[in-house]
Amino acid sequence: LDQDSLRLRNLAILWVFLAQEGVSSAKVVVVGAGGLGCPVAMYLAGAGVHTLGIVDYDEVAIDNLHRQIAHKESMVGKSKAEQFSKRFCTGYSEVGFDVVIHVDYSCCSRCYPFLNFRYLLNDACVLLGRPLVSGSALRWEGQLTVYNYRGPCYRCLFPVPANSSHISNCNEAGVLGPVVGLIGSLQALEVLKISAGLKPNFSSKLYLFDGSTGISRTVAIRPRKKECNSCGDCPTITELIDYELFCGSGACDKVHSLSVLPPIDRVSASEYSQIRSSQQATILLDIRPSHEFSIANLSEAKSELAIGSTWLFWQIVLLLSVFVICHRGNDSQLAVEILKKKLPFTRVRDISGGYEAWATEVDKDFPTY
């Protein structure tokens, strides 16, 4: 037996030789080499998939290593896709890793959370007749389904994109490593079953997992829509489009800075530092959740627990000068808009960039997270 056959002989016990042949000859593209993509690609490589395409624009970051188990500290600042392929080419000699993607892939695994990629990959898979194994995870929860495999595509369920400003990502909301590990492992299982010629578990079904309770459940999703613009009987989508424009969102998980307030309603962190030093009578409202407030805060900041109190309300009304701060300066702008309507005679301003700007411009020792 050759080395590949020896390595995979335990898998041969599970399914017939022809099934393993299907897995070995499969060409799978994994879109996203992060928390989900790492276990997907690692298990597919380990199972004998000989051609893996890895797509990821991003670089390895140290604050993502807790969930991106294929990457190491020595890789920080380097391309995720290239580092992944270099590392696992040495571990799996029979596996070829592509960083330039072609159209001859037999299956796609979506491990990116971005809204525009959901539509892009859906349309591409429908046009090419490929199944799309789609996973996502946020905070304690994860979900998984298979689109375009004898069932609906993503557009059958969501023909119109949601408002991208209402969608959180892992950088903003956090995620537990074991949750992405579980969902990623199940994605790999679905890809292996499809490649082996077996029916996947979650075509036309949605698997849901809640790590906070340990409860998992599977629900049926609506069937394929005949009038779907992508996979329907008379599709109107016959080529790929500008998905950033279509979805109104960028193709990355970097936190974008909102700009909803006029300059007169905003001050920089440096400007607030000067106001703070001048001992002017002001109030600083810190609208972050209490667990973030406990990580680090300015001494004069009033947390969300105090904001609802009557005495603070009257202080705000009487002082006529209020500043609002949050983590990055996005939520604080939205809060200022609300406060200006409720307190029309009070000067309410946002601290641009929030605590991240404070740590950059004023106090470089201020804890960041």
TrEMBL record:
<dbReference type="InterPro" id="IPR035985">
    <property type="entry name" value="Ubiquitin-activating_enz"/>
</dbReference>
<dbReference type="InterPro" id="IPR036873">
    <property type="entry name" value="Rhodanese-like_dom_sf"/>
</dbReference>
<dbReference type="Pfam" id="PF00581">
    <property type="entry name" value="Rhodanese"/>
</dbReference>
<keyword id="KW-0501">Molybdenum cofactor biosynthesis</keyword>
<dbReference type="GO" id="GO:0004792">
    <property type="term" value="F:thiosulfate-cyanide sulfurtransferase activity"/>
</dbReference>
<dbReference type="InterPro" id="IPR001763">
    <property type="entry name" value="Rhodanese-like_dom"/>
</dbReference>
<feature type="signal peptide">
    <location>
        <begin position="1"/>
        <end position="26"/>
    </location>
</feature>
<protein>
    <submittedName>
        <fullName>Rhodanese domain-containing protein</fullName>
    </submittedName>
</protein>
<dbReference type="Pfam" id="PF00899">
    <property type="entry name" value="ThiF"/>
</dbReference>
<keyword id="KW-0732">Signal</keyword>
<dbReference type="GO" id="GO:0005737">
    <property type="term" value="C:cytoplasm"/>
</dbReference>
<dbReference type="GO" id="GO:0016779">
    <property type="term" value="F:nucleotidyltransferase activity"/>
</dbReference>
<dbReference type="GO" id="GO:0042292">
    <property type="term" value="F:URM1 activating enzyme activity"/>
</dbReference>
<feature type="domain" description="Rhodanese">
    <location>
        <begin position="278"/>
        <end position="367"/>
    </location>
</feature>
<dbReference type="InterPro" id="IPR000594">
    <property type="entry name" value="ThiF_NAD_FAD-bd"/>
</dbReference>
<dbReference type="GO" id="GO:0006777">
    <property type="term" value="P:Mo-molybdopterin cofactor biosynthetic process"/>
</dbReference>
<dbReference type="InterPro" id="IPR045886">
    <property type="entry name" value="ThiF/MoeB/HesA"/>
</dbReference>
